[in-house]
Amino acid sequence: MNRVPRLISVCLLLGSAGLYGCAGRQDSDQALRQAGADFQKVKEDPDVLRSAPRDVIRAGELLSRADRLSGYLGSSTDVSHYAYLSSRYSAIAREHSHLLLNQEALAKQELERQRLQLALREAKLASAQRQGQWLEDQIVALATTQTDRGLVLTLGDTLFDTGQAELKTSANRTVLKLVQFLQLNPARIVRIEGYTDSTGDKDENLQLSKDRAQAVADVLTDLGIAEKRIQVQGYGDDFAVAANTSERGRAMNRRVEIVFSDEKGHLGAAR
Amino acid sequence: MSIRPLFAALAVASLAGCASDPAPTEQLKLTEQALEQAKAVGATDDQDDLQMAQAKYAQARSAMLGKSYKDARMQAEEAELDARLAEAKVLVAKSEEQLHQLDTRLNRLHKQLGSAQ
């Protein structure tokens, strides 16, 4: 090889390096090492590789470009530049990977949240059902009788004033329980039946029995039970439960009976 | 034989970025978009990366005016990646916040479930 042109080329290189390459060689070496370390880290991280492969590839490309350039004199500005870009791509890749991992965790937790919400709703429902069962027991305990007509709750005559159809406030507790029971058992319907003793005019008794049954029905509808779930029937002095000869017997005959359907809403036929 | 030094000289010239560098208009557009995107997702001047991106973008623009195209390109390229890093960091911070909120809700649900049973 001819020595002279070679010397010229070296001179040219050195000359241009002197003209241009003033950004410190040390700085560019430092940047290059940093970029190499950054790239190494993301390259070895399977999460980063999986979630941001393109960024990792760009970081690698820019790193080798910076590396190649560092072999030339006067290239330190370019080396620093490409090393910087490479480092940035590595950093972006890391952030993107972080983002993806977070999003995956979010999706997982969202599923967990839905599962828990469902479980909570079921638990609440179960407790409501238990409460319903408790109320049912209470209703049954409220002097109900299981007759061939179904479950029957009797409201005694003390809940009404003599000859009056308005329910007394002392009936409130029983009525509220009744409402709760009907709300927790939305399929059930009721028939409210009014009865009197045999004292007095038969037609008046029939009317009074109807009015009293209707008064109970009105309170139930006022408290939010749908009208269509309530049937009203007056029987006057028919179907006495005791002899009308004694005051005690007559008191027992003055009553309102509430007949419950079964859970599916089947109500026995009226008398 | 005497052609080799010429190649070397050319290579150095192109590396050094003489006046023949084309104007990096496309790169400036890309950088501007990256900046807008970062701001759109909620990056603010509180972030060093965004500040750097904006400063470099301003430098790139003034380098364009002075026809120092190589300098303009380099500044714009770095500004683009600074902006994209700022954007990614904002998104990560947001997802952290969401995770935290969801965590709180899950804890509340666990507690409620505990007392419901």
Can you offer a commentary on this structure?
The complex is a heterodimer of chains A (271) and B (117). Chain A is α+β, with helices and mostly antiparallel strands. Helices cover 62% and strands 10% of the residues of chain A. Chain A has helices at residues 3-20, 25-43, 46-51, 53-69, 76-141, 172-184, 202-222, 247-253, and strands at 144-147, 150-155, 190-195, 230-234, 255-260. Mean pLDDT of chain A is 84; it is low at 13-23. With 117 residues, chain B is mostly helical. In chain B, 81% of the residues lie in helices and 0% in strands. Chain B has helices at residues 4-16, 25-40, 48-65, 69-116. Classes of the chains: A alpha+beta (271), B mainly alpha (117). Chains A and B meet through α1 and α5 of A and α1 and α4 of B.
Poorly predicted runs of chain A: 13-23
Q: Outline of chain A, from the CA principal axes?
A: rod-shaped
In whole angstroms, the N-to-C terminal distance of chain A is 128 Å
Strand content of chain A: 5-15%
Question: Helix count of chain A?
Answer: 8
Looking at the overall shape, the CATH architecture of chain B is Up-down Bundle
* Rg of chain B (CA only): 24 Å
For the record, the count of structural domains of chain B works out to 1
Largest sheet of chain A: 5 strands, mixed
- Order of SSEs of chain A: HHHHHEEHEHEHE
CATH fold annotation of the largest domain in chain A: 60s Ribosomal Protein L30, Chain: A
Q: State the CATH class of chain B.
A: Mainly Alpha
The neighbouring-strand order within the major sheet of chain A is 1-2-5-3-4
What is the number of helices of chain B? 4
Tell me the count of domains of chain A.
Answer: 2
Main sheet characteristics of chain B: none
What is the typical, i.e. mean, pLDDT of chain B?
A: 86
Question: Would you state the CATH class of the largest domain in chain A?
Answer: Alpha Beta
User: How much strand of chain B?
Assistant: under 5%
